[in-house]
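Postdoc handover notes: sequence design on the structure in folder B. Input tokens:
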């Protein structure tokens, strides 16, 4: 089978990646973390999918293959087999209920889907996943490929060499002789028997010594621990004490430096204070002066407001006085109103007299005319009656006209009768009296308001003159009191700040002189000169070292007392008792020797059983072919040094050297990996005759030298001629440089 192309949609951090491979050797070179192992995992995933559960507590493949931030992983792979070209599309999506897999295998020649419901790898290669991983998938830990019954089911479980020179009979005889030397078949002799008896006797002595000397053992252990603790505490005490002394001198050094800085700051502050005191020609305003100044300004503002109020009050009083005068002027018309009332009263009387006289004359004329007519008197009497009637009519007309004239006059005053007019005259007189009184009051109020205004104006002028005098003292004009206050406040603030700073500096200088009184400056500098960089003390937690110094000092005193007591007690106890420590050391050495002999005995017995069970079956079937093929490959890779390989019962390699079989663990790591590489190729040739497996080698040449790497690449290129494809994943250029000297290959840079 040959892989032609892969495309990763998303897989273990790789996204949207397409690679095409040739039919022979493909070298994929990339830096560490560039995704070489990811590509190998992706090819296995395309063939066999991803496990839903982890093995032995490992993370399941379905979670490990999922890129961060994605909810699916997968892609496709195109490959060619003896039966045709195929494409595998496999995607696994993460849902709320778990993972859901989508798989399809397409026959590219027939344009149809095939192998529905089957595992793609098993359908195309004819082997299960675990066999593929242990034969064709050679990872960075390649030598650990075998083990377990799953691979054994494909290669008859266990492999062993059937070469005539590798004699299992000799091995069995040697193993049996070793077993008998360790323990006789009747169980009454041999090294293990002798060691067991010696151990029992030594255990009995030790138990007795432990029973008799438990107090000695405890006190000796306590004494050793006490001595160790005394030594440790002395070391820590000396170190902590030295650091504390250096730190104290460093603190004194910093205080001397701060004292110099403080004195310099005091001198600079004195100059600044002297310069500030010249601001107002030696005058130093204080808070009390500022309060008086503010009080004067406030009084001036209040006086100004009072002047304005008094001026407004005087103006209001003047307007009130003018109004009262106008009202009093209007009241002077009362005299004409009285005259009119008298005139109306006389007119009404005249009207009454004329009307009465006219009526009387008319009545008399009518009566006289009637009498003359009835009595037929002389015509002269008619004339007299007519004249009387005419005079009466005229009087009546004059009375009526007089009445109308009187009514018009009453109407002009808004009344209908003389009585009403007289009442109005009385009311007008009372109103005039009140207005006269109000005029007098208004004139009095106006005079008082103007007097108050003059007083307030004089007070305001006095305050202004006082403020201007203070402003001139402070080099101001007094026009802007706030600016004047600001200047005084600034001066006071600066003065207080300087005074406060001076007090702080004086206190600091006094404190620093007190703190440095116990130190000689020259001695301090001399001690610190050996330190060099004093910044180390800035990061030093001296509190911890002070506590450690005091703790160690107290601990040393207590431990010295305890050591003396223990030594006296042990001197009294060390007389007739056997030393359990020596007995225990002897017993430990004996037990170690016995365990080694027992392990050797068990190993010999297990090896004999394994050889006896596997030799007959494997020698007659699989082992000769496998050993022959792997041995030939190993001979090529090692230039003939190792040409015979075998596999023991634990499915690990063995090799023939110096007339005997040896475990592959004795080989160097590079040679051991070459041997397992040869065994993989032999297994691939044995199990996959019809469909050649593509070989995936992930950093498999990391522990081999250039010559063996060259031979292994030559084998891969030879297998390429037999339609075996190989993918060599590496982070070095060594493989491609060596391959350049061997044959053709396809280089892919990641």
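Designed sequence:
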């Amino acid at each position: 089978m040959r892989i032609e192309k892969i495309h990763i949609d998303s897989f273990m951090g790789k996204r949207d990646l397409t690679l095409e491979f040739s039919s022979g050797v493909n070298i994929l070179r990339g830096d560490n973390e560039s995704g070489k192992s990811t590509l190998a995992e992706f090819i296995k995933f395309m063939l066999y999918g991803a496990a839903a559960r982890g093995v032995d507590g490992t993370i399941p493949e379905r979670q490990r293959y999922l890129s961060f931030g994605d909810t699916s992983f997968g892609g496709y792979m195109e490959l060619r087999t003896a039966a045709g070209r195929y494409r595998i599309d496999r995607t696994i999506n993460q849902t709320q209920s778990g993972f859901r897999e989508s798989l399809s295998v397409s026959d590219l020649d027939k344009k149809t889907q095939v192998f529905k419901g089957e595992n793609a790898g098993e359908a195309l290669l004819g082997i299960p996943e675990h066999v593929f991983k242990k034969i064709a998938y050679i990872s960075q830990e390649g030598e650990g490929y075998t083990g377990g019954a799953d691979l054994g089911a494909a290669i008859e479980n266990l492999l062993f060499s059937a070469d005539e020179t590798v004699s299992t009979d000799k091995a069995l005889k040697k193993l049996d002789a070793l077993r008998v030397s360790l323990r006789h078949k009747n169980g009454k002799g041999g090294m293990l028997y002798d060691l067991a008896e010696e151990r029992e006797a030594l255990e009995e002595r030790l138990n007795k010594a432990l029973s008799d000397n438990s107090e000695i053992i405890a006190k000796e252990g306590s004494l050793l621990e006490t001595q160790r603790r005394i030594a440790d505490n002395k070391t820590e005490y000396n170190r902590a004490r030295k650091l504390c002394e250096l730190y104290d001198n460093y603190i004194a050094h910093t205080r001397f430096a701060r004292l110099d800085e403080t004195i310099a700051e005091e001198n600079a502050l004195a100059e600044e204070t002297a310069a500030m005191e010249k601001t107002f020609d030696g005058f130093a305003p204080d808070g009390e002066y500022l309060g008086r100044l503010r009080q004067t300004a406030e009084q001036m503002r209040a006086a100004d407001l009072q002047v304005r109020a008094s001026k407004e009050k005087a103006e209001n009083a003047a307007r009130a006085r003018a109004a009262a005068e106008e009202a009093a002027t209007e009241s002077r018309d009362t005299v004409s109103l009285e005259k009119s009332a008298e005139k109306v009263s006389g007119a009404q009387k005249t009207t009454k007299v004329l009307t009465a006289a006219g009526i009387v004359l008319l009545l008399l004329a009518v009566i006289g005319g009637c009498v003359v007519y009835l009595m037929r008197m002389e015509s002269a009497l008619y004339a007299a009656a007519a004249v009387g009637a005419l005079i009466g009519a005229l009087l009546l007309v004059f009375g009526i006209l007089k009445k109308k004239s009187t009514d018009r006059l009453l109407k002009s005053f808004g009344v209908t009768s003389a009585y009403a007019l007289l009442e109005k005259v009385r009311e007008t007189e009372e109103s005039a009296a009140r207005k006269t009184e109000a005029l007098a009051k208004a004139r009095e109020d106006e005079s008082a308001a103007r007097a108050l205004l003059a007083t307030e104006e004089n007070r305001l002028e006095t305050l202004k003159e006082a403020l201007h005098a203070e402003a001139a003292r402070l080099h101001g004009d007094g026009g802007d009191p706030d600016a004047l206050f600001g200047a005084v406040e600034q001066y006071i603030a600066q003065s207080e700040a300087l005074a406060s700073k001076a007090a702080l500096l004086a206190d600091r200088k006094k404190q620093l002189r007190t703190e440095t009184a116990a130190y000689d400056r020259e001695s301090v500098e001399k001690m610190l000169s050996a330190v060099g960089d004093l910044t180390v003390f800035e990061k030093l937690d001296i509190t911890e070292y002070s506590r450690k110094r005091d703790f160690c000092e107290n601990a040393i005193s207590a431990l010295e007392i305890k050591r003396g007591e223990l030594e006296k007690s042990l001197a009294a106890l060390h007389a007739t008792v056997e030393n359990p420590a020596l007995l225990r050391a002897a017993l430990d050495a004996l037990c170690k020797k016995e365990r080694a002999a027992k392990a050797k005995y068990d190993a010999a017995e297990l090896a004999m059983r394994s050889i006896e069970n596997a030799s007959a079956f494997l020698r007659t079937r699989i082992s000769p072919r496998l050993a022959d093929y792997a041995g030939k490959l190993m001979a090529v890779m090692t230039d003939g040094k190792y040409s015979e390989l075998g596999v023991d019962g634990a499915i690990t390699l063995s090799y023939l050297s110096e007339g005997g079989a040896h475990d592959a663990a004795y080989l160097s790591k590079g040679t051991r990996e070459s041997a397992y590489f040869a065994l993989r190729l032999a297994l691939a040739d044995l199990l996959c005759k019809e469909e050649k497996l593509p070989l995936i080698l992930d950093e498999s040449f990391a522990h081999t030298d250039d010559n063996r790497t060259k031979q292994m690449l030559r084998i891969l290129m030879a297998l390429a001629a037999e339609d075996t494809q190989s993918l060599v994943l590496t982070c070095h250029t060594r493989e491609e440089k060596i391959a350049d000297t061997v044959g053709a290959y396809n280089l892919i840079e990641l």
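Context for whoever picks this up: Residues 142-166 have pLDDT under 50 and may be disordered. Don't rerun without checking with the PI first.
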